[in-house]
# Entry
Amino acid sequence: MARVVGLRCLRCSASYPADHYAEDCPSCRHVTRSNLVVVYDGAMLRPRPRPSVPLGAGLFRYGDLLPVVPEHAVTLGEGGSPLYPLGRAGAELGLDELFAKDETRNPTWSFKDRLACVAVSAARGFGARVVVSSSSGNAGAAAAAYAARAGLGCVIFTFKGAAGSMLTQMRAYGATVVAVAAKEDRWTLMEHAVRRFGWFPTSPFFGPVVGSNPYGVEGYKTLAYEIAEALEWQVPDWCVLPVCYGDALAGMWRGFSDLLALGWTEGMPRMVAAEVSGSLTAALSEGIDAPPEMRRNQQSVAISLAAARGTFQALDIVRRSRGAAVTVDDDDLMRWQHQLGRDGVFVEPSAAAALAATEQLVAGGRIARGDRVVCLLTASGLKDPAAAGARQGDLVTVPAGFDAAAAELRRAGVFPDR
# Structure
């Protein structure tokens, strides 16, 4: 375990105790609410030799860079997701090196397992008895699974209209799922539970949102470690992520920063936030630190990215990395979900945002043909199959008997004419 010495404001660097994981920075509230980040003993990042052999499997192979002691670690075999080239998509976009980091392979089929793994492990370290999350799907499913593994209680506050398959998944792990009529009410209820009962929050629970539990965000550092290791300790030119509150964006950036400090890599990637609201895009355009609320006329198919307001942590990483925020629309999301399916990868619509954003940056000349680009595919299409199913049309139905069935299939274009 890396020794934790406290928490620090991402924006103003004010210091706070290690147990202030359920707080933001009060000094920054007059401008924008800012998340806290974990601060380690300086010895953690002293340069050391790069690993000469593979580090093994699972998140905790990087245990000396994470804020969890072995006896508190909760694992379901998360991490180690494949990084593979997207040849067809790359050819369509005119990119020689386009890669997918495929997080659909995690235990609950999403990247949120990395956050939940470290957050729930930290909850055990703080002596928590119940973990709580405010979630429309992936974060809640992951929190429920890891709480079950840890033997802790779990309560998920969600809203009516959340994807039914993910609510079923949460409940299958034994979580108590509470749906409210208005989205904002889930934060109010969750905040009371955190403040009054000492429940350990893994997700945001007050607004404007600052991001998830800072210990959980550290789990996303392992994305950077794995990507660099798979690329033989080379750093991509661009990392493109679907972004709601920017937890993975911030965590991945911290991971690449660790690798640079350790002397294992050279340089840093440019980070791209693919969003559906346009909040980060507006903040960048206006040069402000408080992303504005940008409500849509109708809900996006990208339910996991549906927040109307971005976070300072996401904005900060885009600026620091000289990256970009890109607003994507539903038509492009569904087109890229379909395209990825033809490459053998079924992702939820939100995950396809990474490809839609990459397409815009290539078209605008920001990403060049020779750039190495990694797109984070955040979750499986089985998390929210309704959106894809609605666009697939009716099944081909045939009568009994081969000849009659074959004739119908030829009419449908399934069998070629003789």
Notes: The first strand starts at residue 4 and ends at 9.
